[in-house]
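Homework help thread (please don't just give me the answer)

Our assignment gives two proteins as sequence + structure token strings and asks us to describe the second one. The first is just a warm-up. Here they are:
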Amino acid sequence: MAHQQIYPRGCTFTESDWDALYPFWYPIAFSHDVGDRPMTATLLDQRLVLWRTGAGISVANDICLHRGIPLSMGWVAGDHLVCKYHGFHYSADGQCVKIPANPEANIPKKLCLKTYPAQEAYSLVGTTLSSGSTYPLPGLPEWNDSDYQQILPEAVDLDAAAGRQMEGFLDVAHFAWVHTETFGDINNPVVPRYEVMPTEQGLRAKYSYSHMV
């Protein structure tokens, strides 16, 4: 039987768009923001909780399975994420390991959070909503290359579709008209030819705009 995809409650994406987007990796937080308190993030309309333990950073749906309280309202105690409502303890892999009101309870294995892969790279925390994703975390070898400058800008809220946002990053022709106060030159709008190379993950282009002022 084919697996039935479960979409986030109140999902604003069409099913076809969500299906196309969810297998990829996305940055959901700055590494420095994930400290000794759980925090929440939303990816493709799925509300998530992030917490850091000795095992690293964990990511799960932001809901306690007992009474539906957001786990981001709780705290981290040792290597456990603790729910604020009844103190249920969850391990780094999402398993409920302690019920304070009934310490001798035989906790069923199904009392386990829906978790997702998490990786820290480039000062960001990334995740994918597909636990079986075949797409690797995108490589950025330039991050540790002394010939490049590391820049980690603040997050910006954009009220636009994901496809339109990606288009903005790929569209070099707008530099001369939009970025006139930084690196764009309105008097030099011509886009020189540059190569686009296919890779296992998609396409890679190397475009130089050093001619702009």
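The one we have to describe:
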Amino acid sequence: MDKQTTKASQDFVPIKEIRNETVVLKDGSVRAILMASSLNFALKSVDEQIAITSQFQDFLNSLDFSLQFFIESRELDIRPYIAVLEDRYEKQINDLMKVQVREYVEFIKNFTKNENIMTKNFFVVVPYTPPILDTTKKMSGFFGKKEETLEIKNSFEENQTQLEQRIAMVEQGLVRTGVRVVRLGTEELIELFYKIFNPGDLEKPMKID
């Protein structure tokens, strides 16, 4: 892939940097991403379902900013678990246990090969876009008047403070509905976006004899 193609591909990625658990976009706005727990709504009683729905509706109505709910569905990667079992097989002294571990490994490998097992992760994207103040300054020159536009933006620390307030509001609102959330750290954000923009790397086969 040549440099021009690489540069053009990067233009489609709106992310400028990721730091302090915050995604900074090229337009100066910031994002925090919360991982949310799942809620088995179908197993709740009718009264519980009504209460959850009402709480969620009240939560959405209380917000004065938009939210993005993102569901990531991926095929379950069983290879790390198989690797752990293979390690236990090698360390096992009892011959009978070794046979059982080997049979269990083969069962897991065959089962996951024949069944399409998916995992789902739930995310909430909390945004903050700092106000941009445009000041027009007129300058006199030899060829006439010239206008210069200056943009004044908040600092990263100020933007992060505003973002933290929104995160607290979202967390409190979702907890009332029975959903727990945790904010993704810097390394977790990098891993998440790497997986999104490089899906092929997850499909590379892992050789296990």
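TA reply:
I won't write it for you, but here's a hint about the kind of observation we're looking for: The two ends are 34 Å apart (CA to CA).
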